[in-house]
Amino acid sequence: MDYTNKNILVLGAGTSGIGAAITASAVGGRVILNDNKEIALSSKDGQELSRAGVRVITGRQDNSLLDGTDIIIVSPGIPLTIPILVEAAKRQIPIIGEVELAYQVAKAPILAVTGTNGKTTTTMLLGAVLKEAGYPICIGGNIGDSLSEQVMTVPANGYVVAEVSSYQLETCHTFHPKGAIVLNITPDHLQRHKTMAAYQKAKETIFANQTGSDFTVLNVDDTIVATMQERTQGHVLLISQKQKVSDGAYFADNTCYAVRQGQAEAVITTADIHLPGQHNIENILAVIALTFALGVPVALIKKAIAAFKSVEHRIEYVATIKQVKYYNDSKATNTDSAIKALEAFNGQVFLIAGGHDKMTPLADFMKEVKKRTKGIILIGEAAERFEKAAKEAGVDRIWRAESMHGAVVLGSELARAGDVVLLSPACSSFDWYSCFEERGDDFKKEVKELEAKVKGGR
Length: 458
Description:
Blueprint: E1 7-11, H1 15-26, E2 30-35, H2 43-51, E3 55-58, E4 71-74, H3 83-90, E5 95-97, H4 98-105, E6 110-114, H5 119-132, E7 137-141, H6 147-151, E8 159-163, H7 166-169, E9 179-182, H8 190-193, H9 196-204, E10 215-219, H10 223-226, E11 235-240, E12 248-252, E13 255-260, E14 263-269, H11 279-293, H12 298-307, E15 316-321, E16 324-328, H13 335-343, E17 349-353, H14 363-372, E18 375-378, H15 383-392, E19 398-400, H16 404-414, E20 420-423, H17 436-455
Parallel strand pairs: 1-2, 1-4, 2-3, 4-5, 6-8, 6-9, 7-8, 9-10, 10-11, 11-12, 16-20, 17-18, 17-20, 18-19
Antiparallel strand pairs: 12-13, 13-14, 15-16
Helix pairs in contact: 5-11, 5-12, 13-14, 14-15, 16-17
């Protein structure tokens, strides 16, 4: 799409919206950045937007903003059902997201990662392998800085590595990644998508425009993802921990194998992997499958994986205090992700869970809580419903905390040597915090303060 002299309205003045506004201006657009809330921009953001010639309007969002608008770029957190977007659709004004903009202005091919869980770890590991192989890269999308700004810095011989969420994919139309990874599909974000069918459809946008010269990595162990082989035109690379595959990657005898046309090559054993949990084998296999298909030598793939540690907020080790280990898994914003975290430990876990309730079913989750924990500490808006579900599942050691400080202190009082205190909320963060990163940082702060207090003997 040619943005030259187009009137562009960017909705949402967060990181994604600010980046999209600056990028749209850089490629010739006349840009208005709008947010319905009053936004106090940082001096840095304000100066960059001013230099880019972006007009900023916050504190209102009425239909007059649509007059003369040629294109709308919407931030992923904004539902497409808000009044101004409903009116824009009636006026047939194109509505795209920042990921679509990034694709349209990128010089380098995009490698995109989606799934309900594991996206961030897989994306960061994919970037690490490509960097080890010497490619110029950027990493963004649903993590880090604005993707559309970053893609402008990557030359054609590099790669753009993008984590893409269902929210971002539902505003993609021409998005065409060279490589697409779909890890898993479990119930999530149903308050936005309403049905699993709609959620799955949004996820499948990742490969909707692929051709036979592109790669689609699919986890055949996931029943929903396995069916996607029928709907992609990309060259399918399968990954599995349960069976051998003829093209892609699989796990057997504690070893990850890369496979091309039935010929398997050992890449790395579990002895050299430093990511806890069986779910991380899934993430590693996806990276192996795609990078091997792209021509990265096995030795470099192994070197990068062996050097890789857990990403921040995803089963992130924080400290050991009185022989009790504390882990921050704030990124576990749904029950499936929290179950995977519990599976990474041996059952000696005091789980801190709760937050803004997504209203997903809890029965299976609480069965795992009963089986894999020594008790659960509940926080946030979801505490009451979680407690009811826990009791119905037979969990009999349940506590409540009214703050993260209270939860960490309670965990320290309950745990004994060899135990783990794990923050894995199975909820979004939007009751007490603005994002899961803020929640995880608060947990780490409280643990570090506890550690300092214990070391100080106070």
